[in-house]
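Illustration: Transcription antitermination protein NusB.
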Amino acid sequence: MSDTRESKRQMRSAARLYAVQALFQMEASGSTVEKVTVEFEDHRFGATYEGDEMAEGDPVLFRRLVNDAVERQALIDQMADRALVAKWPIARIDPTLRAVFRAAGAELTAGDTPPKVVINEFVDVARAFFPEGKEAQFVNGVLDHMAREARPEAF
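Result:
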């Protein structure tokens, strides 16, 4: 793979991670979409914290995921609820996982990235937040169900 293609892939992966963080932050703080997206783009994309350089993110994908997750939240949450056990609706799920499902749901309902790519990318995001747990497997199962509902023609 060329350096340019790899760089674009890494920027898209970073944008997905940042979208999950932004959605989490919005839910936790009550911040607006505009405030959070500007903060991330101005202060996190490519920033250096305690000697560690943050990845550059694809701002177009980042904004689209955050905006679409907010605009389609009711639809995405209903899809996630149908994938979850009845006793565990999305409202009872860990807020980080809820943000993962919402960002992934935004990309799945947009319909331009193959569902398997979306699932793999967001399973990797879950691993970044939960490196020791079974959350990545849980995310894989829920997103597979959501993808089959959102894009049945892809399966």
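Reading the tokens back as a structure: The CA atoms of residues 4 and 10 lie 10 Å apart.
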